[in-house]
Design brief:
By secondary structure, the chain is of the alpha+beta class. Helix content is 26%, strand content 33%. It has one domain (7-120). It contains 3 helices and 6 strands; from the N terminus they run αββαββαββ. The chain is globular and about 45 Å long.
């Protein structure tokens, strides 16, 4: 999304991703029933937002668990993007926000800082 995109347009786009995620969740068959389906809203760089299908629990955990390393940290957020943007979640869907702060020499500041909001099948199994 461009730098001139309004919060209202971002919320509409986020809702469209969440709706697509919920459609996929409701229509899983066969082996896919064990996969996690999430809509990932990335801020401030909304352009990198996506639908993620996690076929492996450890891969899902590596994206959503709190962690600390020499490269940086990831921690859970204690707020709700769904409330802030008035997003609608289907029954069985939930939300998890993760704050990321890592060393990144490709960034002008030398850091990569963002929020990733996971919607859909994010609760522990």
């Amino acid at each position: 999304m461009g730098r001139y995109t309004t919060p209202e347009i971002q919320a509409q786009c986020a809702q469209s991703l969440i709706d697509a995620c919920q459609h996929l969740m409701q229509n899983k068959t066969g082996a896919a029933k064990n996969w996690r389906v999430t809509a990932v809203i990335c801020l401030p760089d909304f352009f990198t937002s996506e639908i993620c299908i996690f076929k492996d629990e450890s891969y899902f955990d590596s994206h959503t668990q709190e962690a600390e390393s020499p490269c940086g940290t990831s921690s859970h957020l204690n707020s709700s993007l769904a409330e802030d943007w008035q997003l609608q979640l289907a029954p069985g869907s939930s939300e998890l926000g993760v704050h990321i702060d890592y060393t990144d020499p490709d960034q002008p500041s030398g850091r990569f800082v963002c929020q990733r909001w996971y919607f859909g099948e994010v609760m522990p199994r």
